[in-house]
């Protein structure tokens, strides 16, 4: 987090004082590296230190912070765009230094995560931090789980190679599938091209913060998907009936405009309390310590698909017209089936005991348990 904050700060400086195009490019690259560091570390850190009963709500603060950041950025850009000297873009890009400073200062005062301390042999310090975080000295059982997880992790020399083994197939698939599907909800299209109004709807994230640890991850995923699917079908029908394939709607009545805008808002709210925050929460809590850094790196890297969607969206819109919404609706249906079939419920499960949910899952148990049996067989043979 500290490294990401510094990279973000330097990138903001390059962009704010840019005199040449290359300075903007370098600045944007540094900002990208900074965001990568933050996306890699922050969700994992929260999942590792949060009490398992409130892990979902606390981790979703990450998505809420992103939403607030988007809202504040758009408000500031509104005023910067009105600057008469044409220098507003310097201030717009330079203000990225504000969250950068916040990240740096915050990271300085944060202790290392408990798992990190134990892995470096600082068991006593980790225990004291655990007592401090939990507010009670009754932490023996949880501390024992952390130590056992660290010992298992220490036996793994190459986390990337280990992640590809059959035993970790569920985590590997989720590390790719969840962020991949998150990009194919169609939400990024609206984020890139819709007015500020639709971005503010992201405050619906509050709904998931208060419900995720009560109703569970799967139900929020499936409810949000159903909501988005229905809205995309309605929007498709509305646009097809008025715009057709020639893109000439004639005179649009006000009720029609309110209908389309209303369903887009409902669609965005569905994303804001399901695939938006859960896309960060679930990957950060399902990876075992020995492959956690590698798996989270893959999870964040798949986000590059956002760039691909941004590049092809206008071309797809020109060729597919209203069919573009059907395109994303089909993917929403596919990802709903994937969640229903492949994702176990992780609500209320301590992060060190997450392997149990895969061992008990109707599909994944054939991968996890078979690998466990192989490990047992190796031990028996060695004896």
TrEMBL record:
| Boundaries of every Major facilitator superfamily (MFS) profile domain copy | 1-347
Keyword annotations: Membrane, Sugar transport, Symport, Transmembrane, Transmembrane helix, Transport
Q: Which domain of life is it from?
A: Eukaryota
* Entry's Gene Ontology cellular component terms: membrane
Record carries keyword Ligase: no
Determine if GTP-binding is one of this entry's keywords.
no
Topology in the lipid bilayer = Multi-pass membrane protein
Transmembrane segment boundaries: 60-79, 91-110, 190-212, 224-243, 255-276, 297-316, 322-339
Coiled coil segments of this chain = none
The record, for InterPro entries, names: MFS_dom, MFS_STP/MST-like_plant, MFS_sugar_transport-like, MFS_trans_sf, STP/PLT_plant, Sugar/inositol_transpt, Sugar_transporter_CS
The entry's protein name is: Major facilitator superfamily (MFS) profile domain-containing protein
Origin organism is Arachis hypogaea (Peanut)
């Amino acid at each position: 987090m500290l490294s990401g904050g510094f990279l973000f700060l330097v990138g903001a400086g390059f962009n704010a004082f840019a005199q040449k195009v290359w300075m903007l490019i370098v600045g944007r690259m540094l900002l990208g590296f900074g965001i990568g560091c933050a996306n890699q570390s922050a969700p994992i850190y929260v999942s590792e230190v949060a009490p398992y009963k409130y892990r979902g709500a606390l981790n979703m603060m990450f998505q809420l912070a992103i939403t607030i950041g988007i809202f504040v950025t758009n408000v500031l850009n509104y005023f910067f765009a009105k600057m008469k000297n044409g220098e507003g873009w310097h201030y717009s890009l330079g203000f990225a230094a504000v969250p950068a400073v916040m990240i740096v200062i915050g990271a300085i005062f944060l202790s290392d995560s408990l798992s990190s301390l134990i892995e470096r042999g600082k068991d006593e310090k980790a225990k004291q931090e655990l007592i401090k975080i939990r507010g009670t000295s009754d932490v023996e059982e949880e501390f024992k789980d952390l130590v056992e997880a660290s010992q298992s992790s220490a036996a793994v020399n190459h986390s990337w190679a280990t992640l590809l083994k059959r035993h970790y197939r569920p985590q590997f698939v989720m590390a790719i599938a969840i962020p991949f599907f998150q990009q194919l909800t169609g939400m990024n299209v609206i984020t890139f091209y819709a007015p500020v109004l639709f971005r503010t709807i992201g405050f619906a994230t509050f709904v998931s913060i208060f419900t995720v640890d009560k109703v569970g991850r799967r139900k929020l995923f499936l409810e949000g998907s159903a909501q988005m699917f229905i809205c995309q079908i309605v929007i498709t029908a509305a646009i097809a009936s008025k715009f057709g394939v020639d893109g000439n709607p004639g005179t649009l009545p006000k009720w029609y405009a309110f209908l389309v805008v209303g369903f887009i808002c409902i669609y965005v709210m569905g994303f804001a309390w399901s695939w938006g925050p859960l896309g960060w929460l679930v990957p950060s809590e399902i990876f075992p310590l020995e492959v956690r850094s590698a798996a989270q790196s893959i999870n964040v890297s798949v986000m590059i698909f956002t760039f691909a969607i941004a590049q092809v969206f206008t071309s797809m819109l020109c060729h597919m017209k209203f069919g573009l919404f059907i395109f994303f609706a089909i993917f929403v249906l596919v990802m709903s089936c994937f969640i229903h079939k492949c994702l176990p419920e992780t609500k209320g499960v301590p992060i060190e005991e997450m392997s149990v949910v895969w061992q008990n899952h109707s599909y994944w148990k054939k991968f996890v348990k078979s690998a466990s049996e192989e490990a047992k067989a190796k031990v028996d043979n060695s004896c």
